[in-house]
From TrEMBL, chain B:
Superkingdom to which the source organism belongs: Bacteria
Pfam families (alphabetical): Glycos_transf_1, TreT_GT1
Species name: Thermosulfurimonas dismutans
Name of this chain's protein: Glycosyltransferase
Subunit structure: Homodimer.
Entry-linked InterPro entries: Glyco_trans_1, Trehalose_Metab_GTase, TreT_GT1
Domain Trehalose synthase N-terminal: 37-181
Length: 246, 432
């Protein structure tokens, strides 16, 4: 307890789980011209869904396309150029969903101006705008100290990873995941852990891959922390000693 | 250990403890809510099978759940079968008399079920047969939800227009795929259906029992077997399946079984069955079985004995027979339509095809490569475990119920130990 007071303990990390229930918006588009018009007005949560919900969708391998817009343009509109351009969009680089919406519109419009017939080319199957309802569950699990993450990561469901790594970027200032947001409130001993977690790019990794990456790297870090703890003389003066998780 | 607790623990062993914990957290907020499911048949067909599992599971979670089946003369079910075809895109002749009969039966059933439905907190109406009940119960107090199990992507418009007049009165509707949703003034949830791993149709069977059932059917358990299990319905393309088998049998020897049950609300089945029997007459290694609705173990055994399962539908709502086969570790060759596309992931859990020729090629491929068959089967089972078990289905229904009472927010955050939100502070929903 004394340690917690000394470092202004930020409180435990509350481990949550989540599930997505899809909700149809009732909107669909058969052409790129229609797609742009719908994107202009669609609920921002639908744009978020078409970039991120695929992580919790049944799949087996790395998809060729990283968002639903790029996949639809490739498969149904059959324009490889626009599909490739859309595929490059990294949604977490945009400060808000409105910025992302604007980027989408600009890319599609730019391509339509390059080929005047493209805007009206009819897709075999329309693009269905869907949004998600996020249901957030409390797992009852609490972490007292950052290095405890290593002990529980294996038990994290894909929903837990989604909530703390992907959904968190919408909730937290500076688009941080929940782990980094929590860890940065601890003393600098944990900075390397924060830097490790920052290396995760959730856009290209599946939820299982994110978990495996964290398990591998955080365990290495924690092993170092434990070794460090056993050699107190090497600790910086005044820095608190990490406590063993329980 | 109570019966309810035992039931939940059984599901936890198969679906995972977190799947059950999620249902419990949602159900905690709805404890005591009265839920009534209404459909048109107690046996036969995917809806009845789902309800046989869903109702006890919802009860075990602390809700007051009942299931009502509407009744009507055979002519009513002839009309609703036409509705079914029309909503899946076929032009049908529906006369004023047909529509009047449909409405009269719904009105009569609304009077019979009035007390139960008017007092329920949630009424879930399955498919078009009982959809008009809402019109004849103006004093209802709960939330009404329409669950559409069929492919509504390109309905025959006059019939959809007739139905839409009452669907707009519901507080929400549910579809198996986004493609099936329609422009409606209420939230439309996308919830795929599911199977129950403990039902008679899906539970583990001893190899001796599978062997005996095959012998009883006159099949040779030592030879390769390809099956399609589905109602005898033109949309399931039984004649296309037979054609595919004949093309493949020129290269590789196997038995084909076309087996299907009937359902009380499907009077057309007998006609299609006779057509299939005639087409199979005199053909070696092609077997057609009409199974009674309660023949779940026979279906289970056929799927378990099969090397490959086909579901070469031309239109399909979801295709629970695909889910059942995948749960038994079988690769599936499915028609590239409806919910089959969600389940059959090309080269992973099976193959999607568009023609008898396409199906024939994939039958040959999978019968030839035993290792590939086994690998796909393992993936298929895990795919179902993660996505299409009854636990996920019930979780989504509970989330929807909670969501409609809270005005369908984008986020629904559940805190453990938080007070039950049921009954809501507000009196019931305003009548629509």
């Amino acid at each position: 307890m004394a340690e917690k007071e000394q470092i202004k303990y930020p409180g435990p990390f509350v481990v949550k789980d989540c599930a997505l229930v899809s909700v149809s918006t009732g909107e669909k588009a058969y052409t790129l011209a229609e797609l742009v018009e719908k994107i202009k007005k669609i609920d921002p949560s639908s744009i978020h869904h078409h970039f991120w919900a695929r992580h919790l969708r049944p799949s087996f391998d790395h998809p060729e396309f990283h968002n639903d817009f790029a996949a639809w343009v490739h498969i149904e509109v059959r324009d490889r150029i626009l599909a490739e351009r859309l595929n490059l969009i990294s949604p977490h680089e945009y400060a808000s969903m409105e910025d992302l919406r604007e980027a989408l519109i600009l890319l599609i419009q730019e391509r339509v101006f390059e080929d005047e017939h493209l805007g009206w080319r009819k897709a075999e199957n329309p693009f269905y705008f869907v949004k998600s309802q996020l249901i957030i569950f409390d797992t009852g699990m609490r972490l007292e100290w950052p290095h405890e993450i290593a002990d529980v990561l294996e038990s994290f469901s894909p929903g837990t990873i989604f909530y703390h790594f992907i959904d968190a970027r919408r909730r937290n200032p500076q688009g941080l995941d929940d782990f980094r947001n929590w860890i940065r409130q601890f003393p600098p001993d944990y900075k390397p852990l924060e830097d490790l977690i920052a290396k995760v790019d959730p856009f290209f990794l599946s939820l299982y891959e994110i978990r495996d990456f964290l398990i591998r790297h955080i365990r290495t870090f924690c092993a170092r922390i434990h070794a460090f703890r056993e050699e107190p003389s090497r600790r910086k003066k005044g820095s608190p000693r990490p406590r063993e998780g329980g | 250990m109570s019966g309810n607790q035992g039931l939940l623990e059984r599901y936890a062993r198969v679906a995972g403890a977190e799947a059950v914990a999620q249902m419990q957290q949602l159900a905690e907020k709805l404890r005591g809510a009265r839920v009534v499911h209404v459909n048109s048949t107690a046996y036969g067909g995917g809806v009845a099978e789902i309800l046989h599992s869903m109702v006890p599971l919802m009860k075990a979670l602390g809700l007051e759940v009942s299931w009502e089946v509407i009744q009507g003369p055979p002519e009513f079910f002839e009309v609703t079968k036409k509705f079914h075809h029309a909503l899946q895109g076929r032009r049908v002749d529906l006369t004023e008399d047909h529509l009047r009969l449909y409405q009269e039966v719904n009105q009569k059933e609304a009077e019979r079920l009035a007390d139960k439905l008017s007092e329920a907190d949630f009424v879930i109406i399955h498919d078009p047969q009982p959809a008009y009940l809402i019109r004849y119960l103006p004093k209802r107090r709960g939330y009404w939800i329409w669950r559409c199990h069929i492919d509504l992507s390109r309905p025959f418009y006059p019939v959809w227009r007739f139905l839409e007049k009452v669907i707009v009165q519901y507080h929400a509707s549910i579809y198996s795929m986004p493609e099936f949703s329609q422009p409606l003034p209420h939230p439309q949830y996308i919830i795929p259906p599911s199977i129950d791993p403990f039902s008679e149709k899906n539970r583990e069977l001893a190899p001796e029992e599978v062997f005996r059932i095959l012998k009883d059917l006159g099949l040779d358990p030592s030879r390769r077997l390809v099956v399609q299990i589905s109602r005898f319905d033109p949309f399931k393309d039984p004649l296309g399946v037979m054609r595919a088998a004949e093309l493949a049998q020129k290269f590789i020897s196997f038995q084909l079984v076309l087996a299907g049950g009937g359902a009380a609300d499907d009077p057309e089945g007998e006609r299609v069955y006779q057509e299939v029997v005639r087409a199979a007459r005199g053909k070696k290694d092609i077997y057609v079985f009409k199974l009674p609705p309660e023949a779940h173990r026979v279906v289970n055994a056929l799927q378990r004995a099969a090397d490959i399962v086909l579901q070469k539908s031309l239109r399909e709502g979801f295709g629970l027979t695909v889910t059942e086969a995948m749960w038994k570790g079988k690769p599936v060759i499915g028609g590239a339509t409806g919910g089959i596309r969600t389940q059959v992931v090309n080269h992973h859990t099976g193959f999607l095809v568009n023609t008898p020729e396409g199906a024939a090629l994939r039958i040959r491929y999978l019968l030839f490569y035993e290792e590939k068959r086994r690998e796909m089967g393992l993936k298929a089972r895990e795919f179902v475990r993660q996505n299409f078990l009854i636990t996920r289905h019930v979780r989504d229904y509970l989330a929807l119920m909670l969501s409609v009472c809270m005005g369908s927010p984008d986020r629904l955050e559940l805190e453990t130990g938080e007070a039950c939100v049921w009954p809501p502070v507000e009196p019931g929903p305003p009548p629509l």
